[in-house]
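Thread: Newbie trying to understand structure tokens

Hi all, I'm a second-year student working on a class project, and my supervisor (Dr. K.) asked me to get a predicted structure for one chain before our next meeting. I've only ever worked with sequences, so writing a 3D structure as a token string is new to me. If someone could post the tokens and maybe explain what I'm looking at, I'd be very grateful. Here's the chain:
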Amino acid sequence: MRKLTTFTTAALLSALIAVGATAQVGEDLPDELEEIGIFDRSGSSLPLQLRFARAEGDTVALRDLFDGERPVILNLVYYNCPMLCNLLLDGQVAGLREMDWSAGDQFRIVTVSIDPGDDPAQALDKKRHILGDYGREGAEAGWDFLTGREEDILELADSAGFHFAFDPERREFNHAAGIFVVTPDGIVSRTLYGIEFDPQTLRLSLVEASEGGIGDAMDRVLLFCFAYDAEKGSYAWAAKNIMKAGGAVTIVSLLGLIFFLTRSRSRRGRP
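---
Reply by user tm_fold:
Sure, no problem. This is what the structure looks like when written as tokens:
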């Protein structure tokens, strides 16, 4: 019965992901779930002064993990989560493995537990497991797993738009799934909902968050031609940008450039 209950709750909360994308939770949901979801806080500043314990045991301020140059992917999970958090982390790793970029090089990842009862030992165990799946050399220096005090966790989660609640009967947290792409100086740039993350969407979100600080000519052309569609959870053709650029001739030129750059990237084995 416990496994069935956990599965049902996780499935229901997964459905809230799409609801969170519109920053409103449906009126027909149970009362205890109405305030749970992921809400768009693009442009919101994260409280970088907050301090958390790293998996290695030392304590750092969030600002120590933002170097002003590389964008950051923020995850809010908890390390004893029976299902949804594991699905999210596994889905993120699957998307990241298909990119030629690596955590610690072009970007960083910060994973924070929403459970104040989690400790650095649990964070370290989770870090070893996830980085083992990721399989990128040197990634341990670019992916931090943190634990912290309840008040700091709540302040961080609220600033990112991540609303969750603890269920005392099941001793589990009710939450939705998604990740936050943050600028190098701690501003929420993009919220990606769900448990699967397309590598092209991840890449363009990181380029966008860095304001062109990372990426190549192909990425900049794609960002001009495409805009993020929250309903689809991916980048879609931005007709307005093309029209502003000069109409049909520009479209043909851009399509030719995209074709050329895509073939060049494919020959180099890049996503």
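A couple of things are worth pointing out once you decode it. Confidence is low (pLDDT under 50) at residues 1-27. The radius of gyration is 19 Å. Feel free to ask follow-ups in this thread.
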